Amino acid sequence: MNTEQHPDIARLVISCPDQHGIVAAVSELIADLGGNIITLDQYSTGVEDGQFFQRTVFHLPDFARRRHQVQRQLEERLVPRFSMQLELTAAAEPKRVAIFASKTDHCLLDLLWRHRRGDLPMDIAMVVSNHPDLEADVQRFGIEFHHVPVDRENKAAAESEHLNLLHGKVDLVVLARYMQILSPEFLDQVGVPVINIHHSFLPAFIGAGPYQKAKDRGVKLIGATAHYVTEDLDEGPIIEQDVIRVSHADDVAQLTRFGADVERAVLSRAVKWHCEDRVIRHGATTIVFQG
Amino acid sequence: MNTEQHPDIARLVISCPDQHGIVAAVSELIADLGGNIITLDQYSTGVEDGQFFQRTVFHLPDFARRRHQVQRQLEERLVPRFSMQLELTAAAEPKRVAIFASKTDHCLLDLLWRHRRGDLPMDIAMVVSNHPDLEADVQRFGIEFHHVPVDRENKAAAESEHLNLLHGKVDLVVLARYMQILSPEFLDQVGVPVINIHHSFLPAFIGAGPYQKAKDRGVKLIGATAHYVTEDLDEGPIIEQDVIRVSHADDVAQLTRFGADVERAVLSRAVKWHCEDRVIRHGATTIVFQG
Amino acid sequence: MNTEQHPDIARLVISCPDQHGIVAAVSELIADLGGNIITLDQYSTGVEDGQFFQRTVFHLPDFARRRHQVQRQLEERLVPRFSMQLELTAAAEPKRVAIFASKTDHCLLDLLWRHRRGDLPMDIAMVVSNHPDLEADVQRFGIEFHHVPVDRENKAAAESEHLNLLHGKVDLVVLARYMQILSPEFLDQVGVPVINIHHSFLPAFIGAGPYQKAKDRGVKLIGATAHYVTEDLDEGPIIEQDVIRVSHADDVAQLTRFGADVERAVLSRAVKWHCEDRVIRHGATTIVFQG
Amino acid sequence: MNTEQHPDIARLVISCPDQHGIVAAVSELIADLGGNIITLDQYSTGVEDGQFFQRTVFHLPDFARRRHQVQRQLEERLVPRFSMQLELTAAAEPKRVAIFASKTDHCLLDLLWRHRRGDLPMDIAMVVSNHPDLEADVQRFGIEFHHVPVDRENKAAAESEHLNLLHGKVDLVVLARYMQILSPEFLDQVGVPVINIHHSFLPAFIGAGPYQKAKDRGVKLIGATAHYVTEDLDEGPIIEQDVIRVSHADDVAQLTRFGADVERAVLSRAVKWHCEDRVIRHGATTIVFQG
């Protein structure tokens, strides 16, 4: 159900060691506060042990004003009892997002356009690029564009500039075919999740020229994976994947075009789900409540 | 999570007009009874009104023995308060299923084989056919086969025989390419859900020879729809659909083969979901909790 | 193989009653002219009768200059002998296309972006709309935009204006969610193929509000069909179809968004294939050589 | 088009360095012999150089009797002129196939059923297994079953027995989840193509327990790859691939079941295309003419 327009809709995402009575305690508390549960998705990794995850969307009259009180109640009544991690958000308050791009436009334009149509519940705070090429495209959407060149010598300085631009302004960074590796220091300091998109093949091809390698090996599927960025490059928790069918008759240029199509679709879905608080990280994996 | 092996796993499926406190009341009651919720899927058709649906899978020590007590408690504490419809089942107790078939074997064999592998949580009570062709195949799986010929003259008598065979022995009837129309009287009296599979195209083709018509019209996708049978032939609530890509080079025989592939896959998924109590009928539609 | 950059690449698309020796005659003639076949796709509707179709891409040194000679030779040596219809085009010479749109931008923008990126081998001669809303978007791509309002009273006059705009300037008209029905007179006089996109469901829903109807019926797949426009509205030869999976949890707005995604993908593929001379109309169907 | 029933249908598959006039020479020769081309698929890896591939299906009256003459003509007139490799087969003469299996039945049974239904144009000469478990299933289809146990000590002897069983009796070996590695010596001596199926993931997981690893990594797609076996285990030319969508809620058992579904579908398609002479090996890749 589309609940983004309502100012009184809250989302609560929790995670804790499984035990009896969690759903009851949470739903009782929401009922006590005068709330009505609209959607509840829940998952446990085991029958009697393991980890418990829940996403609850509820309607609470006057939520905007009462938000801090609700947060306090949740923390007092749930956190100590269940050793719970919880996050309370307002559905009407969009995530603030920075998009990093380089020269290719397919992922960036898809995000900008879906955002303009109202399909992505987020505010785009800025676009950052190591190249100036996409500036005009971005500005036509009325969005700030920052050109921060990056090369081997200035990388640390460039990342400092990135951190200054982002500081306090964004809840999420999206790498929309940004062709620079982020340093562990940057990831430490950025303080918000970072989502990346990369091509994927069966089997995998390591290193440069993956589409040429895919062609040389005669793969029949071209794929893409959206994942959270960790220090293990291209190895963070997977949010979404998809593939597209190709044939021997497709040359490397055509494979690359198909790859662009699947990349932009997969990244847009991953960003949307993240902004709707549907994705919970759990070690090397994710729980994605698509309900 | 696979919960079919545990004798103490219960499933509760409920539906009622939406109001505050339903999730809380249900989860509190389960906690009071000593149960632990493993999976909870919930859906409402509107923010503050509409219909509320919930599927809850929970672990309750000694459930097999305590089942009637649990059922009574649920009925006393939930039904009057919420005008609730509820169904309590034991995950370890498979649905008893009758499969109706005619001459084509693809849907029937896929069900029998998946059942033998342990992929379908059901007991196959019998196979009923209006033709003898598939008898040997069925018996090799150690399953009863009943040949009940049907023609224009004996249709009422045949359906009486069907009702006698089924009476008290099954919880579900699956039409696995059964090429006879069930009468409204039969549907009234059978007392259990009936699932059917039929081919589907974009656009739809009415009447005989649909694959020839699909060929003549140059469709690029061949589909199948599994649905509950109602008196409106091929128009009952849809459980699952899928398609397969075809080309101008496929002749009618090949289109029919592709159709068989998608039919057996769609029917097997629909039967599995039904047997796991994942499908809730709601007027002309279904809620399917795939979590 | 990507052959669009080469000035000496010719495409020959033929159709005729099947008989012995067609492939031999065509390939011999090409060899005689000094050409080398790069790709040949061929299809017959029957073993010894029926209709024969062939798309041949060949390299012929100095083709641009010799094109008329080649056309004349083909006509003299093939048409009378085989009662053949043939079309000779230069791969390097893009089709000139007019795009008709109304207020929704998803199909239009997808075509404009892909075109800018070099993915669609066509020239966009103009965009025509019955509303002014998309003018700024179109002009940013440096493409002519014509606002031709259409209402019940001025429809004939508007279509005259359309014909004036198009006359001699385009090889194809693409309806990218153009929400006006073209009159039979317009279709008679426009003299070039017209491609349309529309939503498709299993089963089909006729009339207004199809996404609401799809929601009410609980469909699990949302589809789109690209087809050539004939006087039978939404019933012309199908070029391409695809679907996307949806669930009970998607509201009508979300179904409509999914519909937009599949519409733009299907339309872009259909336009690309048409512009590459891969699509041959044959009565109510098409042959699509995707090789 | 379905051409398997016709005794007079020939298939010619050729490969050679590209040069002018190949299509013409082949089609002329077929016309000279009195044949009529039904389907012609052709592909070159480059515009003016590279490798040329063609699959031609043609009708030739009295082909069964004239086959050796046709073969001789092709060899005399085409091989020296074009340095051509060619293979001439009769569509009505099915490939003779040996299926190797171990304990899991999903791939094996799918092949046996499709074969019985007439969907796979092949004769199953025998099933060979290193375990006795599937014997009853195989014999019900009236097919020879050979139990050849394999362990570390007797591997060479077992492979000798395999070679004896296969010698002169089969045109293709299909590994339907056969859990033994074939030695380079066996591959050298078997003298016919060997097709294998294995699971595939994005990213790839090496070694034992791949489904557990896929679960631990949170993959959203489970795939399978059918390929020709070479000495590089799981690295031979890819014939077909496909994937199925999974979610965090699927446990390892369910992932394995989905894997089985996609494996049997992919293997059956690969075997069918091979038996229809649609697959041409070219170094590490394949050309697959699906027309």
From TrEMBL, chains A, B, C, D:
<keyword id="KW-0378">Hydrolase</keyword>
<feature type="active site">
    <location>
        <position position="234"/>
    </location>
</feature>
<dbReference type="InterPro" id="IPR004810">
    <property type="entry name" value="PurU"/>
</dbReference>
<comment type="similarity">
    <text>Belongs to the PurU family.</text>
</comment>
<dbReference type="InterPro" id="IPR002376">
    <property type="entry name" value="Formyl_transf_N"/>
</dbReference>
<dbReference type="InterPro" id="IPR044074">
    <property type="entry name" value="PurU_ACT"/>
</dbReference>
<dbReference type="InterPro" id="IPR041729">
    <property type="entry name" value="Formyl-FH4-Hydrolase_C"/>
</dbReference>
<dbReference type="GO" id="GO:0006189">
    <property type="term" value="P:'de novo' IMP biosynthetic process"/>
</dbReference>
<dbReference type="Pfam" id="PF00551">
    <property type="entry name" value="Formyl_trans_N"/>
</dbReference>
<protein>
    <recommendedName>
        <fullName>Formyltetrahydrofolate deformylase</fullName>
        <ecNumber>3.5.1.10</ecNumber>
    </recommendedName>
</protein>
<keyword id="KW-0554">One-carbon metabolism</keyword>
<comment type="function">
    <text>Catalyzes the hydrolysis of 10-formyltetrahydrofolate (formyl-FH4) to formate and tetrahydrofolate (FH4).</text>
</comment>
<keyword id="KW-0658">Purine biosynthesis</keyword>
<dbReference type="InterPro" id="IPR036477">
    <property type="entry name" value="Formyl_transf_N_sf"/>
</dbReference>
<dbReference type="InterPro" id="IPR045865">
    <property type="entry name" value="ACT-like_dom_sf"/>
</dbReference>
<dbReference type="InterPro" id="IPR002912">
    <property type="entry name" value="ACT_dom"/>
</dbReference>
<dbReference type="Pfam" id="PF01842">
    <property type="entry name" value="ACT"/>
</dbReference>
<dbReference type="GO" id="GO:0006730">
    <property type="term" value="P:one-carbon metabolic process"/>
</dbReference>
<feature type="domain" description="ACT">
    <location>
        <begin position="11"/>
        <end position="84"/>
    </location>
</feature>
<comment type="pathway">
    <text>Purine metabolism; IMP biosynthesis via de novo pathway; formate from 10-formyl-5,6,7,8-tetrahydrofolate: step 1/1.</text>
</comment>
<dbReference type="GO" id="GO:0008864">
    <property type="term" value="F:formyltetrahydrofolate deformylase activity"/>
</dbReference>
